[in-house]
Amino acid sequence: MNLPPKVTDRAFDRLSEIGAGAQALRVAVEGGGCSGFQYDIRLDEPAADDLVLEGKGQKVVVDPTSLPFLAGAVIDFTEELIGARFVIENPNATSSCGCGTSFSI
């Protein structure tokens, strides 16, 4: 059985700061990008068939199609000199682009 993705406390804290309200952070995988697949990370309404990960009063959702690509991944939030963003540490990715939004399996 594949492990579900995990969300760090730092990511849940950032969602609290954003004030997402009833919306959740949606993490999806789509075809495209410079490496074959790309992450789509946005605020969205949860759907009935989504995997819902909850913490600190916040929600992160993953659709059933994206779930196998994100098995065992860690969803985090980072602040660096170049900016702040949600990042995904994906053990399924065999390579990724420099910006971290595109990957291959």
From TrEMBL:
One of its GO terms (biological process) is iron-sulfur cluster assembly. InterPro entries: ATAP (IPR016092), ATAP_core_dom (IPR000361), FeS_cluster_insertion_CS (IPR017870), HesB-like_dom_sf (IPR035903). Residues 6-100 form the Core domain. GO terms for molecular function: 2 iron, 2 sulfur cluster binding; 4 iron, 4 sulfur cluster binding; iron ion binding. Pfam families: Fe-S_biosyn (PF01521). This is Iron-sulfur cluster assembly accessory protein.
